[in-house]
Amino acid sequence: MARLMLVAFDPSEVALGHGFASALGIPFDVLLLSGADPAEIGAERTLAANLGDVPPADSIEDGVVAQLGGYSHIASVSSMRSKDHLPRWAAHLGAAMVTDVIVVEAENRFRRPIVAGSMIETVEVSGSPIVMTFRPSGFAKFSPNGTAAADSITIPITDRTRRVGASARGGARPDLTAAKVIVSGGRPLKDAETFERVIGGFADSVHGAAGATRAAVDSHIAPNELQVGQTGKIVAPDLYIAAGVSGSTQHMAGIKDSKTIVAVNIDPDAPIFENADLGMVGDLFVVLPELQAKLAGKF
Amino acid sequence: MKIMVTVKRVIDPYAKVRPLSDGSGVDTTGVKFDANPFDEIAVEEAVRQKEKNPVIEIVAVSLGGTECEEQLRKALAMGADKAVLIESSENYDTLAVAEEFVALVKAESPDLVLMGKQSTDGDNNQVGQMMAALLGWPQATFASKLELADGTARVTRETDTGEETLEMNLPAIVTTDLRLNEPRYIALPGIIKARSKPLEKRPPSSTATSRVKTVKVEAVPARSAGKKVGSVDELVAELSARGLF
Ligand SMILES: Cc1cc2nc3c(=O)[nH]c(=O)nc-3n(C[C@H](O)[C@H](O)[C@H](O)COP(=O)(O)OP(=O)(O)OC[C@H]3O[C@@H](n4cnc5c(N)ncnc54)[C@H](O)[C@@H]3O)c2cc1C
Ligand SMILES: Nc1ncnc2c1ncn2[C@@H]1O[C@H](COP(=O)(O)O)[C@@H](O)[C@H]1O
Fold it and tell me: Which member of A84, A115, A273 has the closest CB to residue B226?
């Protein structure tokens, strides 16, 4: 019998999984690893593990895998965390794994981006279960659908790997993967202070998130969790403003699903203009402040 | 102490590639191949560890056809001591790749396996974690800093929200992110020296399996041709016309 276990690392991922679960179209349960009060997405059962801070992957895999018996599909929202954990579960289950599913064509047929998002591959998976991560932007948005109350379960933790430090940055801005507006900056932002003032200030004025290119992150202009692209965050805002971003394949791989892409670049031949819906040739240090003033109060 | 590093031969990450006209795969005619950039970072890291601790032996390994020798030679030129190619032109899915490398780990007994976090062709991000699970080893993915000390590894890794530091006992698997290091430029003497380093070929430990079959490869639909605006006012008007606010 086909049945999906949607594994959510925190409650926000439950709502994000709704569209994917509907697209797969089979009965499903939710395993919520941390937090409470998941969105009502129509799961038959919700199992809440109440882990608090989700421990390192090798510390909970046995406990999680013990909950996965009898499921034909096991899936989580694509994130660095799910990519850390899920392949371990797949290995224990002897299961095939498909990363970054964007379209469900059938119970065992999926589409996903490959080679830095430059192509889309359709794969057919044999055997069961199938382990997957999926990108929520490809699927319908959440709408309430009723869910049974959560049953508490216990997932044993082994402490082979010790987490000795963690830093979470970000502050008050929305998460890149959830923001409706994103303003991104590249190498020309010069230094962290300039980035924060020009890009961060713009982001705040439109209640949006700040993003960055790898070049900006590598030069310590922006923190690593702001990197957008093939090897950073995959984003899908309504509006993506790229300022001083050349438009490398790797950066574009992360922003293709944005509804409207605006590029501001001083070089009329910058590749980003080939992929931007709206392009303006100009100095970002002139254009962004003017645009910020004219967009004030609109978002 | 021994470090094993996996090196995959992939399409040059800077090449523009397209699907074959019949959609059966990626058109690789005239396309250059290179070592997976994340794997080069893994090799570089192993070499830097060896520079600090010369007793370290580095073995670079790959799974694929004879042509993968080229990427293994590159790893040797960067400073690996020996290379092993599991030679096969069959299709392997990620779990099958992990199983082959696990068999090699059992034969070579490394204290640490350093790998790329993902291959830039398949973009799977799976093999390292799968190997760690099969071996029952701890892991640190997305590593941006690695410190080794008597039997333990301390790894700073990038997370969705920032970074964290993990401490684990060896043996372990560490997968590299871009900011771990910048791979060195390979000078000519390294390339010449690499020619005399051992490169062993061995058959796969079991028959190839692939539970994941590619049925079609397509180009990403191009975004509709963009419009250039001449002023910020025009830009604001266009955004408004698109119903953004
Ligand atoms: C394996 C791999 C993975 C990668 N993953 C990623 C990834 O996830 N994300 C990512 O972003 N990159 C990634 N990269 C790097 C990518 O190839 C590019 O190097 C990077 O995106 C370039 O960043 P940039 O646009 O900021 O810098 P540049 O390419 O240097 O571009 C700067 C742009 O700013 C313009 N400019 C300069 N001054 C001004 C000004 N005053 N006003 C307006 N415009 C100005 C210039 O014309 C130029 O177009 C990856 C690379 C590899 C090999
Ligand atoms: N055929 C292969 N040969 C050598 N290394 C590989 C191979 N396949 C995967 N790997 C390693 O596994 C890592 C993750 O690959 P993947 O899970 O395919 O994204 C890569 O960075 C490589 O180090």
Answer: A273
> pLDDT per residue over A205-219, tens digit each?
999 999 999 999 999
Minimum CA distance residue for ligand 2 atom 6: B8
Q: Tell if the CB–CB gap between A88 and B212 is shorter than 8 Å.
A: no
CA of A46 to the centre of ligand 2 (A): 35
Query: Which of the listed residues B63, B85, B97 should we mutate to test ligand 2's pocket, taking the one with most ligand atoms within 8 A of CB?
Result: B97
Classified by CATH at the fold level, domain A4-152 comes out as Rossmann fold (3.40.50)
Inter-residue contact B144 to B156 (CB < 8 Å): yes
C-beta of A267 in contact with ligand 1 (< 6 A): yes
Cross-chain Cβ contact A113/B220 below 8 Å:
yes
Sequence-distant (≥ 6) Cβ neighbours of residue A219 within 8 angstroms = A187
CA A65 to chain CA centroid, Å, is 23
Residue of B nearest to A284 (CA): B232
- Domain boundaries, given as residue ranges, for chain B: 2-241
Separation of CA A99 and ligand 2 centre (Å): 14
CA distance B17 to A123: 19
* CA A128 – CA B135 distance, rounded (Å): 22
Protein residue closest via CA to atom 51 of ligand 1: A250
Predicted local distance difference test score (pLDDT) of residue A37: 82
**What b-and-e string marks burial along A266-280, b requiring 16 or more CB atoms within 10 Å of the CB?**
eeeebbbbebbbbbb
Answer whether A99 sits within 8 Å of B125, measured CB to CB: yes
Location of structure tokens 């560490």:
B174
Residues 46 through 65 of chain A touching chain B, CB cutoff 8 Å: 56-58, 61
Distance CA A169, CA B163 (A): 9
- Chain B residues touching A123 at Cβ < 8 A: 212-215
- What interface predicted TM-score (ipTM) does this complex get? 0.94
SS3 content of chain B, % helix, strand, coil (to 5): 30, 35, 35
- Taking only the tens place, the pLDDT of each residue in A75-95 is 999 999 999 999 999 999 999
Would you state the torsion angle of the CA atoms of residues A270, A275, A279, A283, taken in this order, to the nearest 10 degrees?
Answer: -30
> What pLDDT sits at residue A170?
59
CB B179 near ligand 1, within 6 Å: no
Region of A242 (left: φ > 0; alpha: ψ -120 to 50; beta: rest) is beta
Least confident of A24-38, A108-122, B172-186, B218-232: B218-232
The pTM for the full model equals 0.94
For chain A, domain boundaries: 4-152, 181-295
Domain B2-241 coded CATH 3.90.1140.10: no
Q: Which residues pair with B173 in a beta bridge?
A: B113, B139
pLDDT tens-place string over residues A248-290: 999 999 999 899 999 999 999 999 999 999 999 999 999 999 9
The CATH fold assigned to A181-295 is Rossmann fold (3.40.50)
Q: Is the CB of A211 within 6 Å of ligand 1?
A: no
